[in-house]
Write a structure and sequence with these properties.
The chain has 465 residues and is an alpha/beta fold. The protein folds into 2 domains: 141 residues, Enolase-like, domain 1, CATH 3.30.390.10; 276 residues, TIM Barrel (Alpha-Beta Barrel), CATH 3.20.20. The protein is 40% helix and 18% strand. The chain contains 18 helices and 14 strands. The strands form 3 sheets. Strands 6-7-8-9-10-11-12 form a 7-stranded parallel beta sheet. Helix 9 runs parallel beside helix 10. The longest helix is centred in the first third of the chain and has 19 residues. The protein is globular, with a radius of gyration of 21 Å. It starts with a helix and ends in a 7-residue tail after the last helix.
Length: 465
Amino acid sequence: MQTRREFITKVSAASAAAVLSPGKFITAPVTSSSPAKIKIAGVSTNFEREPLIRPFGFKGGYMTEIWQSVAWMKSESGNHSTGLCSQSVLWSDASVFASHSESGGNSLMYAMTERAMQIINGQTFTNPVDLLDQLYPEIYEYGKKVTANPALRKTFALNALVAVDNAAWLLYAKENNINTFDNLIPAAYKPALSHRHARAAGIPLMAYSIPIEEIKAATGQGYFFMKIKIGQPGSQEEMLEKDKARLSAIHKAIGDVRTSYTKNGKLPYYFDANGRYESKETLLKLIDHAKKIGAFDQIAIIEEPFPEEYRADVKDIPVRLAADESAHTVEDALERIEMGYKAVALKAIAKTLSMTMKIAQAAYEKNIPCFCADLTVNPVLVDWNKNVAARLASFPGIGDLGLVESNGHQNYRNWETMKSYHPRRNGKWVDVKNGVYELDDEFYSSGGGIFDPMPHYEEMFKAHL
C-alpha cells in the first residue's frame, strides 16, 4: 500500500492543474458580472437542541440529539440573512464525539461557528466562495486547538461553517437582487449544475436495527432507492458474516420488486459502510457473496467502504464505490477519483454549499456522477440539498431524476414541528410522495423556499433588527 505522501505526489502530477491553476475550481470568478461588495456590519449566532426519536447509532457511537445552529448577519446597507446548520459531531469526527460528552462535542463545533462569525464581522466580501476560502483554514486550525485534536478531520470545520456559508449566500442574494437558485450558482460551476429534474428520488436510511419487514414495507410505499447501513459491529470476520446475512435477507425480501425508475426495472442497492472495511480483500468477499445469491447486478453504490487513511487503488473492485466523508474538499475528492472511486456523495448541508459546488464541478470534469446524501438535517436544509440534487446529471442506470437522501423524518422526535418552521411547508415538493419529491415550477422559482423569511429562526435575533 502506498503512503499518503507517495499517493499525493502521484495525484498531484495527474490533477494539480485541475485543482490549483488560476481560473479553475478554487480561484474561478463567481459571476460574469461584477457582484456588489458587501460589508458585514453585524453578526450573531444561536442554537436549538432537537431530540431524536431513539439513539441514532453509527461509527461506534450513538447520538440522542442534534443541535441546530443558526448564523445571522447584517450588511452595512441594512439587509440581513439567517443561515442554518444541523451539527453532526459523530459523522464529522467520531474521535471528537468519543472523547467528549455529547453536549461537549456539540459545544466545540458551535464555538467554531461563533468564532467564524466574529472573524467576519466588519469584513467586506464580494462572494461567499471567496469568503469560505478565507475562513476555512483559520477555523480548521482553531478547531484543532479547541478540540485538542491535531488530527481533526477537515469535515468537522466544514460542518461548523455551514450556517455561516448559507447566511453569506442569502445575504449575497439580497445584495445582488437574486431570488432563484439558478441565478445563485456561479458561472464557474454551472456546467455541473445545469439540469432541471421534475423529480428527485427520496432516499430513506435503513440502519442496522431496521427490521427487514420495514425495508420491504418501504418499497410498498414507493421507495425504490434506499440507503442501507453495512459494516456491522464486531471484528472484521464477525462484521462480514453479519453483512452477508443482512444482504441475503434483503435480497430475499425485495430482490424481485420492480420499479419504473431504473433502466433494468430492478431495485438498486445502496450500501454505506462508513469506513468499516479495513481491506479490499474483505470487501471482495462480500461482493463474491452478492454474486452467489444473485444480488450483484443490483448493487448501484457502496459508499465509503474503507477508512479514510486506507489509500489503496480500488479500480479493480467491480462495484461503483462512492466517496463521502473522505471527500472533505475538492482536493480530497480528486484524490479519491484518482484512486478509482466512481461516484461522490455531495453534502451541501454538511460541507457548505461553496465547497460542494467546487466538488461537483471537479467531479463533472472527470465524468464522475454525484448524488446528494443527508446529515439528518432539518426540513429547510433538506431543500438546500434538494436544490443541488435537482440540477445534477441523472445517476447511471437511473431514469431522469435527481437523488437526495433525507432521513430526518425517521429520526427527529419533533419533525412535524420543525417542518412548521419551513417558509413553504405546504409546497408540493416538501414531502416524499410514492418515493419521489415532485419538483414543480414553484420549487424552481422559489429555490424551494430558501430565500423566504424564516420567522421562527429570525425571532432569535429580534434584538438586532
